[in-house]
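To illustrate the input format used throughout this study, we show a single complete record. The first block contains the structure-token representation of the backbone; no residue identities are included at this stage. The design step must infer an amino acid for every position from geometry alone.
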């Protein structure tokens, strides 16, 4: 299931709740201990919580609620509703009492004619959020008799089962809606109605190791310096942590000392200022907001170049893919990749919208301090990438624009022609293979090394792991370019679904281990960008629980 989340100026890393705990009785069958409400309406009869009357009309909505709040859970109960044709009731979840009022606000698993098995938003949006087909309901509901509800709330997901049949599978798209609250039972006003509830149990679902949640979309806006300051402040702790663990601890004396690394960053900063002044302004702002020096922020962006200059354990290269017409079933163009990196940073990434007034905005996938590692801009240009096959390791890296800064600069361009023009200025510092596409189906590969730039275009599909262009691999025209084995596998997969590829096809090729595109715990994230609809999709890797989230440019 794909979930859409948007929030402003907040980035959190929290575990997604999973399945744990033991069911506990919320009702002892004898008393209303642990519950509160109008005791003129609510009582215990025949071992059931009972509300309303068949003799007199229920004057208004009444709710009996737990005194304890719950977050993620699985709730089970039995209920029986009798009364006239307008009789109605419901089970409240993630609910709050409205101060000085008999009403509550929250989700309701509805009960009654026309509402069986539906999810209603009580006193908030005041509408049915999701409902089953009436024909399905007619087959499963027991009018005037006992029925069962199972309600499962996990993160933004809410599912309802009526008598064992799934009737609602709803995902909340508004991140401002609270995911905690009380449990309640209702008898609806305006009818002669009597409702009974019994066998009420709740299993709290606690965090499970290995599941890493994806934060909601954060929006950063203002001029370049202001954007940088806002980002630096909101990501301050993460930036400091990334600098220490993934830069200083990983690279100092491997082979360079700290002061030499910072001198290298200072030299590269000058090139960034000359070549990408907007990026440089953002970096100054990030430094100010995070409380670090500009050279340290530049040093973080040089992570790829530091990797090429030092000796580290082998990390698998990412798989970058683009596929478009005529290979797609829907005529759209998709750009995606597995993010194969150090497991130590799993769960640290997020998507941030950099809302720019001076050019295209960007949905940027990144890490604290590495604010863009891949992305999609508001003109429909997407960029993914992979580290290059080093070849002559003695070349190392040169003074220039870091790969992470360069790809951000390229995503700030309006057209692929502009992207290619900027890349060919040949001011980059190190090695990379960029795979880009736009909403019109144009697919471009830009590869760089300290020796220069190579640009190739492709029709329908492209896959890269390391260098794949003829120029960089130095492959003669009469010979086929030798690609990474996973490249060949991905090409074979895309060919097998030629003309039928979709968003879901791309996601499945990344997430299912049987396809051998993901690389175990090394695949910490997976992403797909729909350049046609300008939508981003992100999931943690298969080892960290697949859970695709949808991101769009906020209005």
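Output of the design step:
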């Amino acid at each position: 299931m794909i979930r859409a989340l948007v929030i402003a100026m907040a980035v959190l890393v929290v575990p997604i709740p999973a399945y744990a705990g033991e069911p506990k009785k919320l009702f002892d069958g004898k008393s209303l201990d642990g519950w509160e409400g109008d005791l003129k309406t609510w009582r215990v009869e025949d071992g059931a919580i009972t509300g309303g009357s068949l003799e007199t009309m229920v004057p208004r909505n009444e709710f009996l609620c737990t005194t304890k709040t719950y977050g993620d859970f699985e709730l089970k109960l039995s209920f029986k509703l009798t009364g006239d044709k307008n009789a109605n009731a419901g089970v409240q979840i993630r609910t709050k009492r409205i101060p000085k009022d008999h009403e509550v606000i929250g989700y309701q698993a509805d009960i009654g004619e026309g509402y069986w098995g539906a999810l209603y938003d009580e006193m908030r949006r005041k509408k049915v959020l999701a409902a089953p087909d009436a024909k399905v309901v007619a087959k499963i509901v027991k009018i005037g008799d006992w029925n069962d509800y199972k309600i499962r709330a996990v993160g933004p997901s809410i599912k309802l089962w009526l008598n064992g049949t799934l009737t609602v599978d709803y995902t909340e798209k508004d991140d401002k809606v609270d995911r905690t609250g009380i449990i309640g039972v209702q008898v609806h006003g305006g009818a002669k109605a009597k409702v009974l509830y019994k066998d009420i149990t709740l299993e709290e679902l606690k965090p499970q190791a290995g599941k890493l949640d994806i934060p909601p979309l954060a929006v950063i806006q203002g001029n370049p310096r202001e954007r940088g300051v806002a980002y630096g402040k909101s990501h301050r702790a993460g930036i400091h942590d990334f600098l220490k663990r993934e830069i200083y601890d990983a690279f100092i004396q491997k082979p360079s000392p700290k002061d030499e690394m910072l001198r290298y960053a200072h030299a590269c900063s000058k090139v960034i200022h000359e070549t990408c002044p907007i990026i440089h302004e953002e970096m100054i702002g990030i430094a100010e907001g995070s409380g670090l020096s500009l050279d340290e922020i530049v040093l973080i962006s040089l992570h790829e170049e530091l990797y090429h200059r030092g000796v580290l354990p082998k990390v698998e290269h990412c798989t970058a893919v683009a596929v478009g017409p005529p290979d797609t079933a829907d005529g759209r163009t998709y750009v995606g990749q597995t993010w194969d990196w150090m497991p130590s940073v799993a769960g640290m990434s997020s998507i941030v919208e950099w809302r720019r007034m001076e050019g295209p905005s960007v949905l940027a996938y990144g890490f604290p301090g590495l604010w863009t590692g891949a992305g999609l801009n508001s003109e429909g240009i997407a960029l993914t990438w992979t580290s290059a096959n080093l070849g002559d390791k003695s070349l190392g890296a040169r003074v220039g624009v870091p790969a992470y800064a360069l790809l951000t600069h390229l995503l700030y361009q309006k057209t692929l022609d502009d992207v290619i023009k900027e890349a060919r200025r040949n001011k980059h510092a190190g090695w990379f293979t960029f795979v880009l596409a736009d909403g019109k189906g144009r697919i471009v590969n830009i590869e760089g090394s300290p020796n220069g730039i190579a640009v190739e275009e492709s029709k329908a599909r492209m896959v890269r792991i390391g260098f794949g262009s003829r120029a960089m691999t130095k492959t003669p025209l009469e010979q086929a370019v030798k690609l990474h084995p996973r490249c060949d596998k991905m090409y074979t997969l895309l060919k097998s679904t030629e003309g039928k590829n979709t968003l879901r096809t791309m996601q499945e090729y990344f997430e299912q281990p049987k396809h051998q595109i993901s690389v175990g715990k090394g695949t910490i994230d997976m992403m797909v960008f729909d350049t046609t609809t300008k939508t981003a999709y992100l999931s943690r890797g298969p080892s960290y629980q697949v859970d695709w989230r949808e991101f769009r440019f906020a209005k």
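Structural context for interpreting the output: DSSP finds twelve helices and 30 strands in the chain. The CA atoms of residues 152 and 399 lie 55 Å apart.
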